[in-house]
Amino acid sequence: MPRILITGGCGFIGANLASMLREQGHEITILDNMSRGRKDFLDDAMSYQVINADIRDENLVYDVARRQNAIVHLAAFGSVVESVEHPEENFSINVEGTFRVLNAARRAGIGQVIFSSTGGALIGNAIPPVDEKSVPRPISPYGASKLAGEGYCCAFANAYDMSITALRFANVVGPISWHKKGAVTAFFKAIINNQPIRIYGDGSATRDFLYVEDLCRGIISALEARLPGFNAIHLASGREVSVRSLAKIACDVASSPDHPIHFDPKRKGEVERNFATYDLAKKELGFLPAVSIEEAMQLTWEWFRGYEGGGSG
Ligand SMILES: NC(=O)c1ccc[n+]([C@@H]2O[C@H](COP(=O)([O-])OP(=O)(O)OC[C@H]3O[C@@H](n4cnc5c(N)ncnc54)[C@H](O)[C@@H]3O)[C@@H](O)[C@H]2O)c1
Q1: What is the pLDDT of residue 255?
Q2: Is 6 in the pocket of ligand 1 (CB under 6 A)?
Q3: Active-site positions?
Q4: Which of 29, 34, 35 to mutate to test the pocket of ligand 1 (most atoms within 8 A of CB)?
Q5: Which of 209, 207, 225, 208 lies closest to 217, judged by CA?
Q6: Closest residue by Cα to residue 138 from 26, 274, 20
Q7: Which stretches of the chain score pLDDT less than 50?
Q8: ∠73-77-79 over CA atoms, to 5°?
């Protein structure tokens, strides 16, 4: 079974992915600087090699990469809103960091890299549904940094004959997300803490929500497919859900249908409407999301209830 390095493997998606890959018999190494992730997010930390390091330390990444067959690059500065406040740090981690990982992979002779890109933030305010032919016009530094990352992925795939697939994730929902800053985490924490749910804008903004297990199955299919050259592929649910309906689903699954909702001014950097088609992912990877938003929210709520008190805020 191939040895796989997951950068950012102690975060939300990484911890879910590591567990699924290990169950398939893969030997997993995780490189994470623990800025957002935690070793105890991993289901059985002893079964992985966990290296506490920064992706921008290229020589260290190179040393680790030499023992691997593929890299799944998830480590990032992941917040749209925070990228508007801290564009320099976002650039450093997402653009320079991605370059360092790709260059370490090139030097180490790793033929395959999966890059965690994004759908909505990269494309910007286009009329949905978006797909791989939509022209990217990011409206946040985060979206721009992922577009720059895709640019380097395309260049490295072509210049150095590597298989590099940029997977454009939708908004991911699921367990191990207590530390995240997105709407689902904020809504569930508000319900648990008996505070009003806060919606930025009038709630008509839309997103495409994908359950983390569906997403990880897509990542694993991309690893198995090892598509030649560079490819950018949306991993999405194909369903448009407004933030207001998301709040309603959160209240329903938490058995708190009348939970108060406050509306605050909308924030810079966030797109108005977004959802993507997954036709290309279906064709190239056999990707077919199986979990509805209602089920995804139910499963995520159950995890939040179980984790309550285990989180730090
Ligand atoms: N969660 C989503 O809805 C979503 C949507 C689109 C794209 N993505 C992308 O997926 C990837 C994973 O996201 P996530 O939701 O698991 O985020 P996360 O914050 O939970 O995980 C990111 C991990 O990267 C680590 N990290 C950050 N900077 C690092 C650095 N300089 N060196 C080493 N490690 C570093 C953090 O400690 C964390 O464990 C990111 O690239 C993100 O941009 C996520």
Answers
A1: 97
A2: no
A3: 142
A4: 35
A5: 225
A6: 274
A7: 312-313
A8: 120
DSSP character string of 61-106: HHHHHTT-SEEEE--S---HHHHHH-HHHHHIIIIIHHHHHHHHHH
Is the C-beta atom of 140 inside 6 A of ligand 1?
no
User: How far is 65 from 290, CA to CA, in rounded Å?
Assistant: 33
Q: What are the strands of the beta sheet with 230-235, ordered from one edge? A: 49-52, 27-32, 3-7, 70-73, 112-118, 163-169, 230-235
Question: For 113, phi and psi rounded to 5 degrees?
Answer: -130, 135
CA of 46 to the centre of ligand 1 (A): 21
pTM exceeds 0.90 for this model: yes
- Indicate if ligand 1 lies below 6 Å from the C-beta of 14: yes
- Model pLDDT, residue 191: 97
- Of the candidates 75, 45, 42, the one whose C-alpha atom is nearest the C-alpha of residue 60 is 75
Structure tokens at 190: 């508000």
The pLDDT of residue 313:
47
Domains of the chain from N-terminus onward: 3-174+208-239+275-291 (3.40.50.720)
